[in-house]
Design a protein that fits this description.
With 432 residues, the protein is an alpha+beta fold. The protein has three domains: 13-99, Phosphorylase Kinase, domain 1 (2-Layer Sandwich); 105-289, Transferase(Phosphotransferase), domain 1 (Orthogonal Bundle); 295-430, Jelly Rolls, CATH 2.60.120. The chain is built from 13 helices and 19 strands. It has helices spanning 56-75, 119-138, 191-194, 202-217, 227-236, 242-245, 251-260, 272-293, 295-305, 315-323, 374-379, 400-403, 408-430, and strands spanning 13-14, 17-26, 29-36, 41-48, 84-90, 93-99, 105-106, 141-142, 151-153, 159-161, 168-169, 325-330, 335-337, 346-351, 353-358, 361-367, 371-372, 386-389, 393-398. The strands form five sheets. A six-stranded antiparallel sheet has the order 1-2-3-4-6-5, with helices on one face. β9 and β10 form a beta hairpin. The protein is globular. The N and C termini lie far apart (63 Å).
């Protein structure tokens, strides 16, 4: 195959992969969307073209970084790290084949002051970043280029750490390494790297602290008219308080950001796991504060927690379910569903009893903890039965559209219990 300058020309094919479109450009290569004819799936291909570079030293360095990145990806397998399927050469090109995520977006999308994430959602995403870093660090991998553009989000807000092009493998016999060159985005480089001091996994924690500051406020922690002054401020100044830019940021979260960004590594989080623990504790605290302030919410949480459908849900996840649902109370004899309705919601009985009507007659009684509406929820077809309250009853009407906006952890637990309910229903139907 004829070599192509990946910066200026889009090849039609690389190896067995048919190129669809260019989707990204970085200092280390170009990223394309492509089609894998063997696996019958779209993939993302990161391509490096060393021959297009005139400087021989830079060419060798690019090849070296490519093989290191391929090796590192081969060491990593975690839900919060973008998976790589393959690596290879085609003509003069070197390539990595990665998962292609339809409708993905980089975290930097939420770095505008008019598009900031709610604090709980931001914390949830940052927690996932910590989990991905914790795993990489446990494999002796230091990312060294953590920034919003390298943190991808799936449509359901699952984090995928990407671009390990600058990453290094820490030798098992040492707890640090020395870097000859300062590569990466200056704003996100830790002070010890700028000073060319020994570097370990805490450099990533500092960078994640900068990311936290940015997506919570829409501002960088340091600003300067030129690079030299920027580096001086990183090494000597304290960033403005987050609340200067965003008054709703709690003081406890301010402390987490400052500890992550501590100039002295002794004052910084010692591990991503420690940082994740603090983020998780903070998340639970702010959610509990919200539900405690709302007596009605507190009562709803207590009632749901006693139902078998929600037995595996944490309180924070139950609050998400409530916010994605309607809590409806019916008097005895009121119709809840009518045969032929186009309602696609799923229902969980919180208390009381309801009657299932077939042919105008009561055919079954459902009680607290039971569910109904699962078939229409899946098939999107009109209701096949009618439901009427047999006594005073409270039901949770769950909207699929709203549920999709909850955390991935909440959705996974809901899907598990919903499928168990559906399978149980289908099994009992076949047995009759």
């Amino acid at each position: 195959m004829k070599s192509a300058d990946t910066r200026n020309e889009t090849p039609s094919q690389i190896g067995k992969f048919r190129i669809i479109s260019k989707i990204g450009q970085g200092s280390m290569g170009t990223v394309y969307q492509a089609f894998d004819p063997y696996m019958k799936r779209n993939v993302a291909i990161k391509v490096a073209d060393p021959k297009s570079l005139s400087n021989e030293k830079i060419r060798r360095r690019l090849v070296e970084l490519f093989f290191t990145e391929a090796q590192i990806y081969g060491m990593l397998d975690h839900r919060n790290i973008l998976p790589v399927y393959d690596a290879g050469e085609s003509g003069d090109l070197y390539y990595l084949v990665m998962e292609y995520i339809e409708n993905s977006r980089a975290l930097q999308y939420y770095g505008r002051t008019d598009n900031l994430l709610p604090v709980p959602k931001a914390v949830e995403i940052l927690y996932q970043c910590c989990k991905g870093l914790q795993y990489a660090h446990s494999r002796n991998v230091i990312h060294l280029d953590i920034k919003p553009g390298n943190i991808m989000l799936t449509p359901d807000d699952r984090v995928k750490l990407a671009d390990f092009g600058l990453a290094k493998i820490l030798h098992p016999d040492t707890d640090h390494l020395y870097l000859e060159n300062i590569l990466g985005t200056p704003m996100h480089i830790s002070p010890e790297r700028l000073l060319k001091e020994p570097v370990n996994h805490q450099a990533d924690i500092y960078s994640l602290g900068v990311v936290m500051y940015f997506i919570l406020t829409g501002h960088s922690p340091f600003s300067a008219p030129n690079l030299q002054e920027l580096l001086m401020r990183i090494l000597s100044d304290e960033p403005p308080l987050l609340r200067q830019y965003r008054p709703d940021v709690p003081g406890l979260l301010e402390q987490i950001v400052r500890r992550a960004m501590a100039r002295d590594v002794k004052d910084r989080y010692q591990s991503a796991a420690d940082m994740a623990a603090d983020l998780n504790a903070f998340h639970k605290k702010i959610v509990r504060a919200v539900v405690t302030a709302d007596v009605g919410m507190r009562e709803k949480l207590d009632r749901l927690s006693r139902l078998r459908f929600f037995k595996d849900f944490f309180e924070i996840e139950l609050s998400e379910v409530i916010n994605a649902s309607e809590w409806i109370e019916y008097g005895a004899g009121q119709m809840i569903l009518n045969k032929g309705d186009l309602d696609e919601s799923f229902y969980v009985i919180v208390e009381g009893e309801v009657s299932v009507l077939t042919g105008g007659n009561d055919s079954a009684v459902l009680r607290a903890g039971d569910c109904f509406g699962e078939m229409a929820y899946v098939s999107k077809r009109p209701r096949a039965i009618s439901i009427r309250s047999a006594a005073d009853a409270a039901v949770l009407k769950i909207s699929n559209e709203l549920l999709e906006k909850t955390s991935v952890f909440c959705q996974l637990k809901f899907t598990k219990m919903f499928l168990n309910t559906l399978i149980g229903r289908l099994t009992s139907t076949r047995g009759k």
